[in-house]
Amino acid sequence: MIHGIVDGFAYGGDYNPEQWPEDVWAEDMRLMKEAGVNLVSIAIFSWARLQPAEDRFDFAWLDRAMDLLAANGIGADLATATAAHPNWMSLKYPTVLAVDEKGIRYTWGSRQAYCPSSRVYRDAAAELVRRLAERYKDHPALAMWHINDEYACHVDSCYCDTCAAGFRGWLTSRYGDLDHLNEAWGTAFWSQRYGSWDEVMPPRYTTTFRNPSQVLDYQRFMSDTILELYVMERDILRDVTPDKKATTNFMPLFKPMDYWRWAREMDIVSWDSYPDPHDPASPLANAFDHDLMRSLGGGDPFMLMEQAAGRVNWRQVNGMKHPGLMRYHSFQAVAHGADAVMFFQWRQSQRGSEQFHSAMVPHAGEASRSFGEIRNLGVELAALAPMAGSRIDADVGLYVDYDSWWSSEFETAPTSSAPYTADLLLWYGALRDRNLPVDMVSADTPLEGYRLLVVPRLFLISEALAERLEAWVASGGVLLVTAGSAWIDETTAVHPGGAPGPLRSLLGLQVADVDPLPPGTVFTVDFGDHRALDGRDWREELVVEGAETLAVYAEGPMAGRTASTVNRLGTGEARYVSFRPGPAAMERILEPALRIAGAEAVFPVVPGVHVTRRRADDGRTWLVLLHQGTGEVSVDLPRAGCRDAVDGRDVGSSLVLGDWGVRVLEEPIG
Ligand code: GAL
């Protein structure tokens, strides 16, 4: 049960009845029931229909659609409709439109073109939300609220004068006075000193590198400003419907918004997943995002709010989902802790920019293969209802930090060829391939429950966090810090003595210099047995200050120098890896760290198969086996007595998974 919203798993999608004549609605209800749909997101892009003029509202069509849903026992994830404003607003109040970094104001005509600081937008959104809440607060179809849609998807930063004024206010509360701002931003450089607050601007288009502290603070400010919009709507909804939960849909590996800060405001975390069927790396990134979303919600079940039943329409090549792939993606979400499997959208549009985007009901109709798969998935999810609400236990935490994401990718960073997420996915992928459940953690996450904490490229680190990590290690934790960490502080100033700044005594080393290499460069590393193992793309010149050397560089300018270390403290230890490991070196790094930490995998390694476990409060547990690929793979089960959770049959000692095959097994208790 997803937070008490529906029984069992939520199943459905975005429903846009306003795009269709009402006689189609009746057919929608019939097909929804046939497919087992129990929740739909409605009215997401309906503002111009709900408020056709500044002084006129029209809810009649939505009343009828909501009534129909209620009559058919389908819940509404009712949207606040504020993601795309009507054109009467931009014509009358042009500053409602956002401005890009070159000072060009967007024109109306697509979606999400509003400036997040615009008073007009905020007031109009607040009024619409209050009217919707008052009107539908007692409606039997109302299950939950869907606030806006994918905040910052198209406009993640606005550079207009209203935002500039807001930025100055935000900076004033952060730094107090201009002297502190000048100090923090290092404005002694390139004649950038400010003599008055009016001179302080957003980092607009300019000749070359902008001040990195200004860029980082603008990123933080925009994340906070757009979050204010969410909080404004949520507070109105809480006021009118205190018993209803609210969410907004997050996006995959989304850099512009600090989702840790956002998640604190969320009743339920939900997200939209669009893995590219043509990209063999997409299942890994998708798994990472699922785990991030679960972790953002503190481990509570999350919602897969949107996915595509087949093709999207916004890639260069919009690959179809071959038979089984939509089911694989759906169960991948369930495997990582989702209690909702939802789609964009219910019925494929006939007109508009998304007419070629797939849907649960495609143009080809109910006889199509894809609707058949949708119908079957509904049956399976209904059978799995007892599993909803169950959670995932993880011994391993993976540190994810937006400040480090933003700052390690500055235009002035030592290398621009390695995105922060490549490091996250490198380490996450190695853990996932070993069937180790992983939670993402932030500076706010309590660390007590974790045995191993992997910290990839934590470029920006505060003294306070370093102290927390040190205390955690001293009390028994195994910390694994990776290359490119601990260069700068919260204001972007380089730590005294350089990296690893406040982690220097914990790691027992100093980074004297770094050697960023062209992507694809491979070099050898020796873990003490003279076997050449591979490192890639980046290496560091370390000065050991008490740590024990675990591996040395075997060639190149650093031949013979330390490449990886361990430093013991209290009952724990802090490990450091100064290069990006290839698979063999990764094994040599992870194996001892996992063993010493006592972190447990949920299933033996079967190449191409990933396994997770969900655990219910009453002790029942389920394994989800996911075959990432085509062909057949046979899997031996380490325990007898597992039952197929869909049909209840005993599965014996082994099973075979076909193309993108998935099995959910209930384990015997105890
Ligand atoms: C999402 C969005 C939906 C739809 C979908 C298409 O980003 O929330 O409204 O546009 O993409 O893939």
The helix fraction, in percent, is: 25-40%
Number of helices: 17
Find the CATH superfamily of the domain at 396-597: Class I glutamine amidotransferase (GATase) domain
The assigned structural class equals alpha/beta
Q: What value does the average pLDDT take?
A: 97
Give the amount of beta strand, in percent.
15-25%
CATH 2nd-level architecture of the domain at 396-597 = 3-Layer(aba) Sandwich
Going across the biggest sheet, name each strand in turn.
11-10-12-13-20-19-18-15-16-21
Shape: globular
Q: Spans with pLDDT under 50 lasting ≥5 residues? A: none
The CATH topology assignment of the domain at 396-597 is: Rossmann fold
Q: Can you describe what's shown?
A:
It is a single chain. By secondary structure, the protein is an alpha/beta fold. Among the domains are: 396-597, Class I glutamine amidotransferase (GATase) domain (Rossmann fold); 609-666, Golgi alpha-mannosidase II (Immunoglobulin-like, Sandwich), CATH 2.60.40. The chain is built from 17 helices and 27 strands. A 10-stranded mixed sheet has the order 11-10-12-13-20-19-18-15-16-21, with helices on both faces. Strands 5-4-3-2-1-9-8-7-6 form a 9-stranded parallel sheet, covered by helices on one side. Strands 22-23-27-25 form a 4-stranded antiparallel sheet, with helices on one face. A hairpin with a 5-residue loop joins β15 and β16 (532-536). α5 (119-136) runs parallel beside α8. The protein is globular, with a radius of gyration of 26 Å. The model has no long low-confidence stretch (mean pLDDT 97). Residues 149-150, 153, 272, 274, 306, 312, 344, 354, 357 line the site of beta-D-galactopyranose (GAL).
